[in-house]
Design brief:
- This protein is of the alpha+beta class.
- The chain has two domains: 118 residues, Alpha-Beta Plaits (2-Layer Sandwich), CATH 3.30.70; 234 residues, no CATH class.
- Helix content is 26%, strand content 27%.
- The strands form three sheets. Strands 5, 6, 7, 8, 9, 10, 13, 14 and 15 form a nine-stranded mixed β-sheet that branches. Strands 2-3-1-4 form a four-stranded antiparallel β-sheet, with helices on one face.
- Strand 11 and strand 12 form a beta hairpin.
- Helix 1 runs antiparallel to helix 2.
Length: 369
């Protein structure tokens, strides 16, 4: 059976501030998607949240970037936004950048990751959702999962993985793309993805072309031309049977690497792996965090989810995250806690800099004659 798995997210309003999603919002979204399931638009769905982001997880047979599916998500977000405004939730509808739907969600504000594939006899997938960070946050974990044999034993001992994978990388500034073969071109690959603010892994394929992983790559600040909230990306990874095992997929998140985001989208912080009950960032609006939901998919139906990062084996990663957060916070407004100037271009800092520039004088004018 050939199915499409779509994960579409949107910040329709935070409860309280940017920390969580209101239960009424989730209830409304479930009602909207249930109607779509009843009329056969969807095969199945699951509604959840990560921080203040509403997450729609759906299966269907319409392919990626389908107008009907994207319209369903758009209208669901609009309905939820109206409720968010009624409740006075913070930043209600901040990811809604345009007033009317234009065929699909590209450039509209909401983020999405989608893949179409032939469902296997057993189809395990893990859906990662992050809050208070950006799409490039997935670069390091994805490299480890699909190109690092110290993380993924299957790259060495599984004959179906031994040839490696193909990485599609996007330049989100100049809107270009390139495909690298791993392991043959991993050094070239690392040249780009080591700059996650600009170069983002979009898709990963087996060498023969089968999709293995996909991410959301939408950057809100670049679409809006100003800071309207961090992108809070999603990631879908298929597991097992010629693809990385579940444990290999989860392993990179035992290392809470530094990502951009956190408070006002303007700081570096550790990506903390948490359970679903702990996906509500609050300390300095953070630190950034990630949840992982595991599903078995059968005939397009979801079996699950399992809370994959809630395992006690990630307790130490959470402890390290807090220690890193302590260390970074001691820097206050200084880099490297605060992002470098070029990364702050689309935050609210330029408005303050305009006032400061008026007070700046050339060095020669300040010298005594």
């Amino acid at each position: 059976m050939r199915i499409t798995l779509s994960v579409i997210k949107c910040d329709v309003g935070g409860y309280v501030g940017h920390s969580a999603s209101h239960p009424d919002i989730l209830s409304i979204a479930r009602n909207c998607l249930q109607k779509a399931k009843d009329n056969k638009t969807l095969i199945d769905f699951h509604v959840t949240s990560c921080g203040d982001d509403l997450e729609l997880i759906m299966t269907h047979t319409k392919g990626v970037e389908d107008s009907e599916i994207h319209s369903l998500a758009w209208n669901t977000f609009l309905t939820c936004t109206e409720k968010a405004k009624e409740l006075g939730l913070y930043g209600a509808g901040q990811d809604i950048l345009k007033e009317s739907f234009s065929g699909n969600l590209k450039g509209m504000g909401p983020g999405y990751a989608e893949m179409e594939f032939e469902e296997r006899k057993s189809e395990p997938v893990i859906i990662f959702m992050a809050d208070k960070t950006e799409p490039g946050a997935w670069n390091l974990p994805l490299y480890k999962i699909f190109a690092d044999p110290f993380n993924t034993a299957g790259l060495i001992i599984d004959p179906e993985m031994h040839d490696g994978f193909k990485f599609q990388v996007l330049d989100v500034i100049e809107h270009k793309e390139v495909i690298f073969n791993a392991p043959e071109e991993i050094y070239d690959l690392l040249v780009l993805i080591g700059s996650p603010g600009r170069f983002v892994i979009k898709n990963i394929y087996k060498k023969e072309g089968e999709i293995a992983a996909t991410t959301s790559t939408q950057r809100l600040s670049l679409m809006a031309g100003k800071y309207v909230g961090k992108d809070d990306p999603v990631l879908i990874v298929r597991a097992q049977h010629g693809l990385p095992a579940v444990g290999e997929i989860l392993e990179p998140f035992a290392f809470p690497h530094l990502v951009e985001g956190w408070m006002r989208g303007s700081h570096h912080g550790p990506l903390m792996p948490v359970s679903m009950v702990d996906d509500t960032p609050s300390r300095f609006d953070g630190p950034p965090r990630v949840i992982g939901l595991g599903f078995q998919i059968k005939n397009g139906m979801f079996i699950g989810p399992r809370d994959m990062l809630g395992d006690i084996s990630f307790d130490r990663a959470r402890q390290i995250s807090n220690e890193i957060a302590d260390f970074m916070r001691q820097h206050g407004p200084f880099e490297p806690h605060r992002l470098a100037a070029d990364s702050m271009e689309y935050t609210t800092l330029p408005q303050v800099l305009e006032k400061v520039k008026e007070k700046l004088k050339s060095e020669n004018k300040n010298k005594k004659k």
